[in-house]
Design a protein that fits this description.
Length: about 260
Amino acid sequence: MRSYVKAERLAGRVSWSFLFVILLGMCLRVSAKEIKMVTVDWAPYYSQSLPQKGVISEIVDEAFKRVGHTTQLEFLPWERAMRSALRGDYDVLMGAYYSEMREVKLEYSDPMYEVEVGIIARKDLEVTHYKKLEDLTSYRFGIGLGWVNSPEFDTAHFLRKEAVSRPILNLRKMEKRHIDMTVMSTKVFEYELAQSELEGKLETVVLQPLLAKNPLYVCVPRIHPKSHSIIADFNRGLRLLKKDGSYAKILKKHGFDTEH
C-alpha cells in the first residue's frame, strides 16, 4: 500500500513538472515575436546588397534575437518607409535620427551608433570652413527627401535646398553643377562616391566643422499596441550585446569604429 501511495505521489509530481514545462514553452512562444522592420537602402550602414544587410541591420537583428525575437527587414524609399511605419504596417522603423516632430508619433530606443553628418562641397568652390550657416547663403544645397540633418540646418529656411530621394542623385547633380553642396553622412558620401561612376571625376571637400553627430535609433510607432515592450526588449538585447562584447565584434567585422 505504501509503495502504491509513493508511486502515485511520484506520478503526480512528474505530471505537474511535465505540465509546467509545457506551459513554459507556450509562454515563450507567445512572448516570442517576429518583428517586421522597414528602412531605406543606406549603405554602408544598411543595405540589401551588404553582408548581413549591413552593420546596423546585424546589430538590430542580434539584439532582438537575444531576447527571443526574430526579425524580417524590408527596404523602401525613406518617405514610403516612414509612412508605412506610421500607418502600422511594420513594427519597427530601423535607423532614424531624432527630431521633436518625429517623437510625437514614434517611440525611440536607446541609441545604437553615432553618425557624422557633414556639408560636402565641390572643391572648385574653394570653401573649406564656415562659422555659421548664414555664411553659405550664396550656395545651392541638395538634401534628402524627408531626411533629418540637424535642427539648425533643417530650420535654416534662408538656404536654397532641393530634395531628392537618394544620396547618389545629389552627387550627380553636384558633378553637373546643378547644386554646389550636399548634406549627408560622411560615410554614406564616401561609399556612394566609391561605388559610382563619379569617382575620380567629382572633387569634393567636407566643410569644417561637421554639421552634426546624430545617433541612430530603432523606432516604433506610438499607435502600436506593444510599442513600449518592443522598445524595452530591444534596449535589453542591445545592452546584452554590449556587455558580452558582441556589439564591438560586429562593428569591427564590418570595418566600423568601435569607439562610437
